[in-house]
């Protein structure tokens, strides 16, 4: 059983710099909390590039400019806006912001992974000649992720091994762990609520799917079984994984 809690505004390191994720607070509350976080961590974060993750949340042009100026105040560069909201994504493109992150075959420390990855194509031609986005390739990691290892990938991530406490995975798609999951994992990082997390032994530090967050209850599991975690009726639930 997992306990769902409301996720706070979060700032975390990724390969491209910083990923700032905002929740469903009002815009004024978001600005206030973000300013407090940036002020507290200014000396550590300054000089970084920022990707702002919004999920389904819409933003107007003046709000984007206000956030951009706030980041600049603390010596940060807003370069990407990740959103599932069509109009906001189009607005971000018109303002020359990136709207997606590149796939990675290294962890956040630049270490080469023992993995197989299909390189994603940016676009491919459809039958009528228009350009459409190609699917993002999956990332397969054939090793145990130990404390301090962080993986960020736009598509699905499969780990053949354990995810130890202190390790983390952030994926745009599903996350499958063929082993023990005891670290931090986020699936559907760009707002995909259909994403799932599966593991042979599920005892994570914390799980996230899209904008939902869950933690494991205290104490070890008596009889661990393979489990699948998904969003159902607006909250994260775990159930036996039927492989």
Task: Please give the structural blueprint.
Blueprint: E1 3-5, E2 10-14, E3 17-21, H1 27-40, H2 42-45, E4 49-55, H3 61-73, E5 77-83, H4 86-94, E6 115-117, E7 124-125, E8 131-132, E9 139-141, E10 150-153, E11 157-159, E12 168-171, E13 175-181, E14 184-187, E15 197-202, E16 206-209, E17 212-215, E18 227-232, E19 235-240
Parallel strand pairs: 3-4, 4-5, 9-11, 10-12, 11-13, 12-14, 13-15, 14-16
Antiparallel strand pairs: 1-17, 2-3, 6-9, 7-8, 15-18, 16-17, 18-19
Quick overview:
With 243 residues, this protein is of the alpha/beta class. The chain has helices spanning 27-40, 42-45, 61-73, 86-94, and strands at 3-5, 10-14, 17-21, 49-55, 77-83, 115-117, 124-125, 131-132, 139-141, 150-153, 157-159, 168-171, 175-181, 184-187, 197-202, 206-209, 212-215, 227-232, 235-240.
Mind explaining what this structure looks like?
Strand 2 (10-14) and strand 3 (17-21) form a beta hairpin. A seven-stranded mixed sheet has the order 6-9-11-13-15-18-19, with no helix packed on it. Strands 1-17-16-14-12-10 form a six-stranded mixed sheet, with no helix packed on it. A four-stranded mixed sheet has the order 2-3-4-5. Residues 103-135 have low confidence and may be disordered. The protein is globular, with a radius of gyration of 18 Å. With 243 residues, it is of the alpha/beta class. Helix 1 (27-40) packs parallel to helix 3 (61-73). The chain folds into two domains: 17-94, Transcription Regulator spoIIAA (2-Layer Sandwich), CATH 3.30.750; 115-240, 3 Solenoid (Pectate Lyase C-like), CATH 2.160.20.70. It is 16% helix and 35% strand.
């Amino acid at each position: 059983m997992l306990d769902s809690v409301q996720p706070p505004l979060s700032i975390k390191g990724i390969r491209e710099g910083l990923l700032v994720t905002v929740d469903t607070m009002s815009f004024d509350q978001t600005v206030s909390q973000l300013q407090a976080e940036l002020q507290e961590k200014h000396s550590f974060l300054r000089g970084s590039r920022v990707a702002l993750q919004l999920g389904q949340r819409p933003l107007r042009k003046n709000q984007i400019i206000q956030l951009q100026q706030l980041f600049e105040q603390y010596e940060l560069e807003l370069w990407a806006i990740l959103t599932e909201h069509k109009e906001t994504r189009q607005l971000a493109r018109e303002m020359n912001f990136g709207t997606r992150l590149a796939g990675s075959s290294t962890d956040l420390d630049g270490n080469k992974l023992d993995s197989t990855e299909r390189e994603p194509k940016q676009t491919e031609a459809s039958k009528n000649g228009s350009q459409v986005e190609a699917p993002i390739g999956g990332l397969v990691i054939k090793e145990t992720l130990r404390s301090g290892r962080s993986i960020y990938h736009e598509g699905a991530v499969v780990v053949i091994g354990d995810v130890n406490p202190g390790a983390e995975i952030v994926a745009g798609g599903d996350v499958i762990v063929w082993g023990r999951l005891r670290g931090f994992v986020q699936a559907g990082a760009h707002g995909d609520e259909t994403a799932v997390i599966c593991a042979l032994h599920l005892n994570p530090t914390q799980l996230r799917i899209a904008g939902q967050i869950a933690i494991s209850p205290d104490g070890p599991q008596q009889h661990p079984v393979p489990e699948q975690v998904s969003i159902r009726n607006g909250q994260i639930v775990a159930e036996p994984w039927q492989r």
